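Consider the subject:
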Amino acid sequence: MKHALIIEDHPVIASTIEDELRDCGYASADIAISQAEAIRMAEDRCPDLITVDERLDEGSGIAAIRHICRNKAIPVVYITAVATEVRHAIPDAVILEKPFSHRDLSSAISNAVKVARLYS
């Protein structure tokens, strides 16, 4: 059973992503609203996929991913309104701009699975 980690501090957006991931075959998901919570949740249960917003009220999505994926390649989809910030920091990131469709998310997940890598 596939498990996802959603790093998103807006509850409505997180819930929408969770519903979409269920439709994409992810049986469970944890929702983290801060960088620290995301790291803790990933250490407690390693996800098969991470969706992440760069701008969080507490911390950075990019910093969370760099920590979580430093020793294990996990597919990551950045779901964000600040695509240029993410692209500048991580040129090969899989980015999905808000708002998004189910089809866009499904495609982004496929791409992320193909390019999963370690971060430093």
